Amino acid sequence: MQPALKTTSIKQKTTQVLGISLEDARISKSYLSVAFIALLLGGLLGLLQGLNRAGVLQLPPWLNYYQVLTAHGILLVVVLSAFFTIGYFYAGLSHTLGGLLPKVRKMAWIGFWMKIFGFVLVVIPILRNEASVMYTFYPPMAASPMFYFGLVFIVLGVWMLSFGAFTQVANWRRNHKGEHLPILAFFATGVFVLLVGATAFVAVEVIFMIIPWTLGWVDGINVLLARTLFWAFGHTAVNIWYLTAVSAWYVVVPKIIGGTRWNDLLTRMVVIPLVIMNITGGFHHQIIDPGISESIKYMHVFMSLAIGFPSLMTAYAMFRVFERTARAKGGKGLVGWYKKMPWGDVRFLAPFIAMVAFIPAGAGGIVQSTNQLDQVVHNTMWVVGHFHLTLGMSVVMTFFGISYWLVPYLSKRVLTPAMNRLGVIQTVIWTIGMVIMAISMHIVGLFGSPRRTSFTTYGDFAEKLGWNPYMALVGIGATLLLLAVILQVYAVFNLMFFAPKGTTEFPIAEEEAGAEKTPYWTERWGIWVVLMLLVVSMAYVLPIVDMILNAPPGSPPFKTW
Amino acid sequence: MKMHLDEKIWLFLSFGMIMGFMIFTGYQAVALGMGPPSHKETIDPRNVDQTAPFDKPGIKQIGENEYEVVMTLQVFSFTPMEIEVPAGSTVHFTLTSKDVVHGFQVANTNINAMVMPGHIQKISQKFEEPGEYLVLCNEYCGAGHQAMSTKIIVK
Fold first, then answer.
1. Residue A513 lies in a domain
2. Which of A352, A503, B153, B155 allows an S-S link to B84, with CB 3.0 to 4.6 Å?
3. Are B95 and B89 contacting, i.e. CB atoms less than 8 angstroms apart?
4. Residue of B56, B122, B132 lying closest to B92 (CA atoms)
5. Do A125 and A131 form a contact (C-beta atoms < 8 A)?
């Protein structure tokens, strides 16, 4: 036991002093490259949509609006976010747990190629207009079977990576009995537990319901059940990307501003409920569905709103850390301390704006998860505005902020002042574009304009209902966003291959001096997983049994595009 | 673990806000009968045209100022297409889909419901103001989704 412990802790120290090993860096660099190529393509498609809905661009029949929208959703919600999350956390695991184990590295590569293979299978039918079914692929719309086989490979890849992460964490814990998992690895564990939990639902939907049905082995599908399984995955997925961003807020940002981390116990107590209560949040996407009773829907309002609580804890923690740090640097006054923050540092500025965006984004989320308010905005542009705030600002801007130190850390290069300035400009353009777009989407959604609908005037109703000026603003926002995307992608690849050589640290904030020791119960992952399963069963067993027992005759597949 | 007083206050307010949302939502849903459309009847999605009441879609007066509309949704239309009611009438919609998932939304009202094959959905609305109301499908349903709309005329 003792020698093993020694070698790992020596390895841990060498990794921290010498930087990441080439092999571990190659894994994260590959994931980040895919993520940012997906951003470029997804952003370009986003511009096409924005211009179409603004009424200034007609898309050709061989690349129609719904194809573009399906690809945009998958590239950004599934590829960019997942590849970034994995690249970032694998680098974090390597850095904080003493380098990846050889078998974990192998699992990371197998997972990588499974995911890439899956995406190729998904993209081919989309390009051939055989899968214009959106990122949600609600049956009984049926895409080409190849699309669903692709999804299966993506999920298998995610599982491979999750088990890789668990192997790494378990190995560390075996060698560090009684110690707390380093905080970034703690976040990573939560994220990978959720990834397995969430994708399990969509795997059941795709493997046991959709594939046999598109292959013609069964002739009907339970539409409501499929939707329910999808949303147990779909909403959790976006919350996982959010939890990834939150990890940087707690662990990285305090270091960048020259401060210390928020209370360790409270930080872990934010991660734990986000893991336990997350999956059940998905039901609020079905508040106005038939076939689910009002009492079940009411229970789910509670389950969705409960996730708001840890986020409100985070809001407090972040601003407290900022104020504490700024005051330690001589900041004065009730609000005057803000002048001491490093506003010109993109590694701070981007995640800071991301956090601020989460204030309206989170508030909008609480509004939307309540029954009657949801009915007003369900499936309108409001919802699109909401997830461009949450994902497009809170999550993605944090990812951008991370990229300005993570990429040079991996490539053993440095962020030059010039590149930092470019990053600040990029952050400002992105913020302006997203704010214009998200605000107009929220407003036009309240007026009733539907989401996922290509340009249409509805006779003269669009004009009469006052939608058109807002749609024009969406187009303007999308144009600015593409400009920011190009700058961001340029920055990432420059930092990966061309920036000056040097050492960049992996910024992990220390605990406050004299901080109390965190009790060990936070590390009982077995209990957290059991609690998660209990909450999931509480939420889903009753409605799913009802959906199966009282199911209507199944629906045949339709291709309506 | 020591917590600052202001953090305790903040968390107390946060908890209170979430509970407030719960209580208001529950009060509106239960006491005021404003719960979301959640009808639980099912239907064979392949035999909608042969199943009552959808064998005779249309509008029917069922009381003073009260109408029932039986409607099917299919790519990319609503049946019946044109609905006309006097101002001040309450309209009860009974809806189902003959193919994929559709949405039933009437702009400038609180009508918003998912309409799914195999399920019958119900939603009611009182139309006070005279005018033309846009009815649209708000769930992507295929190539002609953007054309799937009609109107309700309130006289």
1. no
2. B153
3. no
4. B122
5. yes
Give the global pTM.
0.94
B38 at the A interface (CB within 8 A)? yes
Partners of residue A380 in chain B, C-beta under 8 Å: 105, 138
Interface test with B, best of A262, A299, A378, A468 (most B CBs within 10 A): A378
Q: Do residues A389 and A364 make contact, with C-beta atoms less than 8 angstroms apart? A: yes
In whole angstroms, how far apart are CA A190 and each of A84, A99, A455, A532, B80?
16, 20, 41, 11, 51
A316 assigned to some structural domain: yes
Q: Does A290 contact B107 at a Cβ distance shorter than 8 Å?
A: no
CA angle B151, B154, B155 (to 5 degrees): 135
Burial zone of A217 (CB within 10 Å; 0-12 exposed, 13-18 middle, 19+ buried): exposed
Minimum CA–CA partner of A286 in chain B: B114
Q: Is B117 on the interface with A (CB under 8 A)?
A: yes
User: Which CATH number does the domain housing residue A501 bear?
Assistant: 1.20.210.10
Residue ranges covered by each domain of chain B: 1-35, 45-154
State the DSSP code for A370: S
Question: Which residues of chain A neighbour B46 with C-beta distances below 8 Å?
Answer: 553, 556
Who among A138, A308, A371 is closest to B29 (CB)?
A371
Spatial distance between the Cα atoms of B5 and A8, rounded to a whole number of angstroms = 42
Residue A241 lies in a domain: yes
pLDDT tens digit at each of 155 positions of chain B: 667 888 889 999 999 988 998 888 888 888 888 889 999 999 999 999 999 999 999 999 999 999 999 999 999 999 998 899 999 999 999 999 999 999 999 999 999 999 999 999 999 999 999 999 999 999 999 999 999 999 999 99
DSSP letter for each residue of A487-508: HHHHHHHHHHHTSPB-------
Domain count, chain A: 1
Best of A59, A225, A294 to disrupt the B interface (most B CBs within 10 Å) is A294
Question: Hey, are the CB atoms on A371 and B11 less than 8 Å from each other?
Answer: no
Contact A135, A80 (CB under 8 A): no
Tens-digit pLDDT profile for residues A420-438: 999 999 999 999 999 999 9
CB contact under 8 A, B21 and A141: no
Fold of B45-154: Immunoglobulin-like (2.60.40)
Pairing, β B112-115 against β B131-136: unpaired
The alpha-carbon gap from A524 to the nearest alpha carbon of chain B, in Å, equals 19
Domain membership flag for residue A560:
no
Q: What is the ipTM of this complex?
A: 0.94
| Cβ neighbours of residue A238 closer than 8 Å, sequence gap 6 or more | A77, A81, A387, A390, A391, A395
| Residue-range definition of the domain harbouring residue A487 | 20-508+534-549
Q: What size, in residues, is chain B?
A: 155
Which H or E run contains A6? Answer: helix A2-18
Instruction: Report the SS3 class of residue A278.
Output: coil
